[in-house]
Each structure stands twice: as C-alpha cells, then as structure tokens.
C-alpha cells in the first residue's frame, strides 16, 4: 500500500487534490521522526550511564566549583605546596589523596606499595608527562623525550636515543673524553686545596661536582670543555657559570606550581613571572648551544667532516628506516639541551648527597676508602674499568641516586 492509499483510508473525506499534499508531508515527516527517536534513545542511554555509580576518588580537600583547590594552595604562600599536601594527608591519615586543581585531578602518593602500582604495575597507563609552561619551553615545543607526553614524538626520540646515543659502543668510544675530564677534576680540586690552604683546606663540593659534570657532557656533546676560556685554575669561566645557573633556573621551574598550568586563560598575564624567568634562561642556553650545532650541521653538509667524534655528530648522522635524517635541526637542539639538564642535575646532586651522608657517617666513608685502596691501590687513579669490582662503592652510588 503506497502513501496515497494510506491517506485515502485514514482521511476519506479529504478533497482529491489534498491527498497528494498530505502524502508528501508524511514522506517528509518520516526522517524527522527517525532522528527524533534516535535522539531520545541516546539521551536514555546517557542517562543510564550517569546513573551508574562511578568509582570513588581518593580522599582529599573539598574542591570549589570550577577552580578546585587552587584557593587553598594560594592561601598557603608561607609554605611550599608539597608541605601543604603532606600536612592534610597526615590529617586525613591517608597514603593517597586527590587534589582537584581546576579540571585536573592531582594524585599524591606517599606509600611505596601504592607508588609501585603507578610506576610498575600500571606503568603504561601513567607513562605520559604533564604539560606545563616550563616543559614547553625547555623542550622547544615538546620535541624531546624526558618531558614530552607519550605519543609518536616520544616513541621517535626514544628509538633514536636507544639505538644511536645510549649504546655501549657509543659510550665506550667516548671513554677518553670522560677520563680526560676526571684528570682535570683532580687538578681543579688540588688547586682549590692549594688556594684554601691553612689549618684545613675547604672544598666547594657543589662547584666541583657541577664543574666536572658540565665539562664531561660538553666534551661528549660538543668536543670542548668550555664555551669560553675557563679559569687558570681549571675552574669554570663566566660563560660556564652563566650556563649552569640558567640550567638550574629552568629545572627549578620545570614542575613548580604555576597557576596558568591549570587555568590556561591566565597564561598571558604571567602572574607569578615564571614564564619570563624560564624564557630568559632558555635564551641563555640556546645562545651557547645553537651556534655550535648550526656550525656542525653545516660542516657535515659541506663535507668538511668525515668521521663522528661526539654525541652531536651521532644525532646529525642518525637515519630513519628510509635512510633520511631521523631528526630535524630543531629536534637535535632540543635534545642536546635536555641532555644537558639531565647530566648537570642528577649526577652532581648525587655526589653532594653521597658525600654529605659519608661525612655524617664516617664509618661508611672509611669502608669505601678501604675498598678503593684494596682493589685499586694508591699508585693510580680509579678507572671506569675498576667500577665492577668496587661493590661497596657501587652500593653507595646507587643509594645516592
């Protein structure tokens, strides 16, 4: 039965000319009715989904609408944010807490067992990195590996780092550069002792550690000790001091609490002044790194270099599966800077903490010294090849890291 016949049955009294008009209206109404039914079905399904009970979040302070717990953090300016978090977690007697900052849920954990759930058992779920203003600057728009959210760029950089940079063969080829800088460190410490001679010689351990790690990574990355001339006693020159200060300025702000990281519409205001500080520090770092990298890239393009001699050459020569350069110049610059962050910060901090603990516990220092004298002797310096046999010293180093 067609639509006209249906109209004749339903409305036999209609004039003949209106039957076709009514039939066309019925045809037009059918799609609209179907869309309406679909909309109602989706609404019912969504309502049922909302009616189901969601898993409970960990305990935490009651959030304000829209802005969450940001007012509580801002009201505690007299203490660091982490202390405020530890304080209310202690009040709640909990090892895991949830703090809502605008639309972001921040989970704080103090229990090793719970932390293991995040970092080991469910590592793939929590493998990404938070996006912050400082990480955007430090990675040149998320081009690196350490602070970049999980995704294609992270996978690409991880592949290059694993296959071209952090390989046993590559590290072995740079052994002479590391050995040279250890000799320079001993000379620098000797000169410090000589200049500070008196009742007792005082060593600036932080300066020495940062000086050594900075020289090592510059030698491995750019095949040079200094950006400038350096001091006569083997210490850092003005350029190295400025560089290291800029590195630690960026690291200090990398994941510090910045309001605009949670309320992005406030970023143009730069209320805390953090963006200005980080951008100026990155300008200093890029001012030293970029000319060296640009010059090296040009040398390889012009055929002036034939053999790789450092990590920068390895980055430039890295190829993808199609034989094309694996990294752009911007990616090389970003990753070189990030490696500077990692190698200047972590080892120097570990040395400082390890020595502090050994001074506080002289028996540990004595035991480590005796092992070195027994295994290496006192006729030569400790070499990297000695480390596998220095089990107690290795344990101390691992504890510091």
UniProtKB/TrEMBL annotation:
Q: Which Pfam families match?
A: p450
* PANTHER family in the cross-refs: CYTOCHROME P450 77A4 (PTHR47944:SF19), CYTOCHROME P450 98A9 (PTHR47944)
Q: Which InterPro entries match?
A: Cyt_P450 (IPR001128), Cyt_P450_E_grp-I (IPR002401), Cyt_P450_sf (IPR036396)
Q: Which family does it belong to?
A: Belongs to the cytochrome P450 family.
Q: Which domain of life is it from?
A: Eukaryota
Originating species: Gossypium aridum
The protein's matches in SUPFAM superfamilies, at most eight in alphabetical order, are given as: Cytochrome P450
Q: Which GO terms of the molecular function aspect are on file?
A: heme binding; iron ion binding; monooxygenase activity; oxidoreductase activity, acting on paired donors, with incorporation or reduction of molecular oxygen
Q: Which cofactor does it need?
A: heme
Lineage of the native species? Eukaryota, Viridiplantae, Streptophyta, Embryophyta, Tracheophyta
- Protein name from the UniProt record: Uncharacterized protein
Which UniProt key words apply to this protein?
Heme, Iron, Membrane, Metal-binding, Monooxygenase, Oxidoreductase, Transmembrane, Transmembrane helix
- Transmembrane stretches in the record are 21-45
């Amino acid at each position: 039965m067609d639509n006209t016949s249906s109209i004749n049955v339903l409305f036999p009294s209609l004039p003949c000319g209106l039957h076709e008009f009514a039939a066309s209206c019925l045809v037009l109404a059918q799609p609209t009715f179907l869309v309406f039914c679909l909309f109602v079905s989706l609404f019912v399904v969504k309502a049922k989904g909302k009616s189901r009970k969601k898993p409970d979040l960990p305990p935490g302070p009651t959030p304000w609408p829209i802005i969450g717990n940001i007012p509580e953090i801002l009201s505690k300016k007299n203490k660091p944010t982490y202390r405020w978090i530890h304080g209310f977690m202690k009040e709640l007697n909990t090892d895991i807490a949830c703090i809502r900052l605008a639309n972001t849920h921040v989970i704080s954990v103090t229990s090793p067992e719970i932390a293991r759930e995040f970092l080991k058992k469910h590592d793939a779920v929590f493998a990404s990195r938070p996006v912050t203003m400082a990480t955007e600057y430090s990675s040149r728009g998320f081009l690196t590996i350490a602070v970049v959210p999980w995704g294609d760029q992270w996978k690409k950089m991880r592949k290059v780092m694993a296959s071209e940079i952090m390989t046993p063969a590559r590290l072995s080829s740079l052994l002479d550069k590391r050995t040279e800088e250890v000799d320079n460190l001993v000379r620098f410490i000797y000169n410090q002792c000589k200049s500070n001679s008196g009742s007792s010689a005082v060593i600036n351990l932080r300066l020495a550690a940062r000086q050594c790690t900075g020289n090592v990574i510059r030698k491995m990355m750019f095949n040079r000790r200094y950006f400038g001339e350096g001091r006569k006693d083997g210490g850092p020159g003005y350029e190295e001091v400025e560089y290291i200060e800029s590195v630690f300025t960026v690291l200090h702000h990398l994941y510090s609490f910045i309001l605009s990281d949670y309320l992005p519409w406030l970023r143009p205001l730069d209320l805390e002044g953090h963006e200005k500080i980080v951008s100026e520090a990155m300008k200093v770092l890029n001012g030293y790194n970029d000319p060296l990298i640009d010059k090296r890239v040009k040398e390889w393009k012009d055929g002036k270099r034939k053999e790789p001699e450092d990590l920068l050459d390895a980055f430039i020569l890295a190829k993808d599966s199609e034989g094309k350069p694996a990294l752009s110049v911007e990616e090389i610059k970003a990753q070189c800077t990030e490696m500077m962050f990692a190698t200047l910060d972590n080892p120097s901090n570990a040395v400082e903490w390890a020595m502090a603990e050994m001074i506080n516990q002289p028996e540990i220092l004595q035991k480590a010294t005796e092992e070195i004298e027994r295994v290496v002797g006192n006729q030569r310096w400790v070499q990297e090849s000695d480390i596998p046999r220095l089990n107690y010293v290795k344990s101390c180093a691992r504890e510091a890291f």
